[in-house]
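Notebook, student rotation project (T.W.).
Task set for the rotation: take a protein with a known small-molecule partner, predict the structure of the complex, and write up what can be learned from the model alone. Partner molecule chosen: pyridoxal-5'-phosphate. Sequence and SMILES entered below by T.W., checked by me.
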Amino acid sequence: MIPYGRQDINGEDIEAVVRVLRSDYLTQGPEIEGFEKETSLFCGAPHAIAVNSATSALHMACAALGVGQGDLVWTSPNSFTASANCARYCGADVGFVDIGDDLNMDPSDLAARLTRARAAGRLPKVVIPVDFAGRSCRMGEIRALAEEYGFAIVEDASHAIGGTLGGAPVGGHGLADITVFSFHPVKIITSGEGGMAVTHNAELAQRMRLFRTHGITRDPAQMTSEPDGPWYYQQIELGFNYRITDLQAALGRSQLRRINAFVERRREVRYAYDTALSKSDLGLPPPDEGCRSALHLYPVRVPACLAGGRDAVFARLREAGLGVNVHYIPIHTQPYYQALGFRWGDFPKSESYYREAISLPMYAAITPEQLGTVIETVLTAVAPR
Ligand SMILES: *Cc1c(COP(=O)(O)O)cnc(C)c1O
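Predicted structure of the complex:
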């Protein structure tokens, strides 16, 4: 089976993890700070907080922004459910903004919903645009709306580390208050499980650090009284244990050294697909506009009239040994969200996209032979029959 995504692990990655295994610290050691510093430098954001998943990072970001009971958080239905769940963890209500032709949150739908929300007296506190497939959202327009309506932006860049927007790295362009990355093995770089939040805001960074470790501080400046002694710590808020291990951070650091090569290889794969599949009737992913996608996914659209439609084509590809997948089942259609009042039909563009989407294999470690096999298999599966 050729999967839709997978990690690329080399000898240096393995040695980096083994070095930690032989060291004094399996967790809470020097690798975590190293991973944070290097990611911070890479993406040009002064503060980076590493955690055990992007899901934790999204929760931590919402908590740092003060999201709580009675608040409203909006995201895109075309995402993994974690983009919405983070608001629910904080007790907030979730809303969605439909996608545009770039498959990301549509700033005009956002603007229309904000107008109605202001009239209804219930504006979102936080909006979470998702850089679908690694392609940046129209962040400038979303930032302008944030200034007008007073919400904060958490950019879910789980797909997008290594990409750029307007020439600036994702995470460093300064249009989001907090940017979140995922290091799950199918993402651009991996730490096994892992995530990171980056920000330009020192206060948000400090709150996120507290939240990552139980709400505990060892910094006397943050304490309510003089420390009892050198052993002393204080829990000043309620946090979680969201720490990443040094084993994972060492892997993430080692992977970060190759991130540009990974993204470059993904761009070669996209070029091969674009060239070969433009001869077919498949809908190809939107081209980059003003950004450089990190290309986490290569999602094609199968129109209902083509070769029996998406479901038939999907079945043929799986039978032929391609581990294709579908991104995403619109979040609002999940039973958990339907129980909160959402329905099929609420976000029609995300829903029609879902009905046509197939993610083809897209990862740096794909071999030229595998790439050839995928192209041939896909062209056969969508050929007139
Ligand atoms: C993968 C992913 C997440 C969750 O990442 P984890 O590191 O697995 O928790 C969140 N949002 C999006 C858009 C993702 O693709």
